Amino acid sequence: MDLPNKVIRVKHQDIPGLMPAMTMSFLVANAREIEDLQPGDTITAEIVISESKGRLEKIGRAKKADQEIAAPVADPHREP
Question: How far apart are CA 26 and CA 8, in angstroms?
Fold first, then answer.
């Protein structure tokens, strides 16, 4: 994510009639809509195409990125 330049990198699904699934950078209309996003978050957005350029609008977080939970450390003094 490049907040000052209003750019977000997105791994998106197939957009029928427009482009296949891929990972690419998109301009965003409003940087405030991406400032709280974290890598791995799932978003919803509208893509607006004008003059062969695309940008994302109405961006929202649909799901937070899965957080890994550290595995418990085995106690060497405890019997299994």
Answer: 5
Asked if the structure places residue 53 within a domain, the reply is: yes
Number of domains making up the chain: 1
Residue 75 three-state SS? coil
Considering the domain boundaries, does residue 2 fall inside one? no
Whole-number pLDDT of residue 20: 95
Domain containing 47: what range? 7-63
CA atoms within 13 A on the CB side of 22: 8
Predicted TM-score (pTM) of the model is 0.72
Helix intervals (H) in 1-80: none
Q: What number of CA atoms fall less than 13 Å from residue 12's CA on the CB side? A: 18
Amino acid at 45: A
The answer to whether residue 75 is domain-embedded is: no
